[in-house]
Amino acid sequence: MARVFVYGTLKKGQPNYKHMINTAKGLARFQGRGRTVEKYPLVIAGKYNIPYMLNIPGTGHHVAGEIYSVDDQMLQFLDEFEGCPDMYQRTLMRIEVVEWEGKGGAGEARAAAEGIVECFVYSTTTYPPEWVGLPYHDSYDSSGKHGLSYVLRESR
Q1: Is the dihedral of CA 70, 45, 57, 13 positive or negative?
Q2: For residue range 21-41, what is the model confidence (pLDDT) as tens digits?
């Protein structure tokens, strides 16, 4: 199992969460909530109002999200879904645990107790330079006060 941190449309209550609970795509087990140890710019960009974490460590906010344990099948699905490696790149990042529900071995419990876990995160280095000038968010909600409603793939 791999650990993945999601901060956008794949979180609970967001438009693409349905993929995280679709066992035909693989297994994803919710472990808890967290936020990036380093600050990153989280922007909402493009004509479909997609959330992107720009891979510019030290700029922006500690981005909030959810931590999942996923199997190889789900990780492969997420790579395809996230357009990896062209649109997003899957990289390891340190995530501060805010709330932990995970069940696992001693290693899992120790990592959670220490408050920092390493997770794969889909961030991007392949973005138009003007995105750096967009407003930065510390968390994402598709129906947030930003007024930038996410456009589902099936509606594009």
Answers
A1: negative
A2: 999 999 999 999 999 999 999
Calculate ∠ Cα 77-81-86, nearest 5°. 115
Q: Of 52, 39, 41, 143, give the one whose Cα is nearest residue 96.
A: 39
Q: Residue 73 belongs to a domain with what CATH number?
A: 3.10.490.10
Out of 82, 99, 108, 118, the active site residue is: 82
With respect to residue 155, please indicate whether it lies within any of the assigned structural domains: no
113-154 pLDDT, tens digit each: 668 999 999 999 999 999 999 999 999 999 999 999 999 989
Q: Evaluate whether residue 73 is within a structural domain.
A: yes
82 is catalytic: yes
Global pTM reads: 0.92
Please report the sign of the dihedral spanned by the C-alpha atoms of residue 138, residue 139, residue 141, residue 144. Answer: negative
Domain range enclosing 125: 2-137
Return the structure tokens found at 62: 């500690």
Count of domains forming the chain: 1
